[in-house]
Give the backbone structure.
Amino acid sequence: MQWITYLSLWIIPLLIAFILVVATIKKVPTYETFVEGAKEGVSMAFSVIPYLVGMLVAISVFRESGAMDFFIDLLRPALAAVGIPADIVPLAMIRPLSGTGALGMTSDLIATHGPDSFIGRLASTMQGSTDTTFYVLTVYFGAVGIKKMGDALKVGLLADVIGILAAITVVTLVFG
């Protein structure tokens, strides 16, 4: 197993060296190409900022307006009937929007309920079972200028719902 540690340390530098050697053999101007790529990266980062700011403002408005708490209170009786703790709903709702926000909620749930509690385990499992769908769509689609993302949004949200349901099922079966 020691060789895996060495491989993991050297795989990226070796890959970069391999790319540079192949580019040099093919007489590609590597430094100039690198600088052009860096310029494109910077301009792409600037083009993504408006999309990112808009998404973060929308998340903040939703949370701070009390809309999320209202929604959770509406769902509380139905969730209790099927054995899903209502404390986990904010995490399930914010996870597709913001990885950092979801990590903060997971940390709060673990601090409140404990890492070995059902809610702590469920929050941790949900954190690893879903993705930040809106963030991914905003950043990556915005970066390349794709405006029509309806199908990708539907598939991403479906994957998030499946991930959340799978997390609830697995944690209930294993730790229930």
Remarks:
- DSSP finds eight helices and no strands in the chain.
- The longest helix spans residues 30-64.
